[in-house]
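hey so u asked for the seq, here:
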Amino acid sequence: MKTISFVNMKGGVGKTTLAVNVADVLSRRLDKRVLLVDLDPQFNATQSLYGGDEYLELRRKGTDTIYDVFANPAPIISAVNGPSVSEPKKLSEITPTKFSENLHVLLGNLEIYRIEMGGGQGTEMRLGGFLKHKANDYDFVIVDTPPTPSVFMSSALLASDYYVVPVKPEPMSRVGIDLLQGVINRVSENNGHEIKCAGVVITMAQRSTLVYKDCVRELKADATWKDRLLRQSIPNRTQIAREQGNQKLILDIKEPETMRAIVNVVTEILKKTDDT
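ran it, C-alpha cells below
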C-alpha cells in the first residue's frame, strides 16, 4: 500500500480536484483499490463525491469520519442529530465508506476543528496508526490535506510515503510551495520519516499564456523543483469546477483533453512511486 498526500500551503490551487480525480482514475481506469482520506476541515473532497443530503444521511446512520481517527481520547461530539457525545472507537474499528467497488472514502467532518484545539497526545501519529490497520485492504491511499500547517498536515505527511504538489500558475502559488518544502523538511527531520515527492502538477493551466510559461520556466530553474515538475498539466476548464459541485468527476465529464490530462498525470505519478 502506498500513501500519497496532496499538499500546498495555499488554497485555491486545485488540490482537492486533483486528489479526488487521481483517486478516481486509479480506481476506475486502473482497477486499483483506493482509499480517499478527506483530512481538510472544509471536507471538499467528500462533497465532490456526495451531495449534502447524501452526506447528512450517512452521518445520521453513524458512518465513520476522519473525526473518529483523531478523537481518541476525546469523546465524539456531533451536531448532526442534535448535540450528542459518544465514546471514541479504536482505530481498528473505524470503517471507511464504500463509494464504489474500488474506491472507499474516509469522510471529512467539519467538527474535526475541535481536535485541533486540543492537540497533543500523539495526535499527529493517529492517521498513520489507522492506515496500518488497512495495509492489506488498499493499493493506494490518497490524502487531501488542509492548506495550512497544522497537526493534520503533519499527520498526513507522517503517514505518507509520497506527496504531490498542485501549483496554480501564479506567483503566490509558487510562494506556497516554497514554504511547503520547509514544513515537509521540518516534519521529516523531527520524526525521522522520509517522504518523497511524486510530482509537482500545474493545475488550471492555459498553456498559451505568459503566466503559464513563466511558471514552467521558474520551476525548471529551481533546484528543488526542476526534476519534480510533471510534463502533463491539468487544463483550465470551468466545467471541471461546475460539475464537481454536482458530484461529477473528470472521467464523467468526458471532455477529451481533460480526460487525457488526468490519466497522463496519474501515469507520471505512478512512475515516480514505482519502487521496482
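The longest strand covers residues 196-202. The radius of gyration is 18 Å.
lmk if thats what u needed
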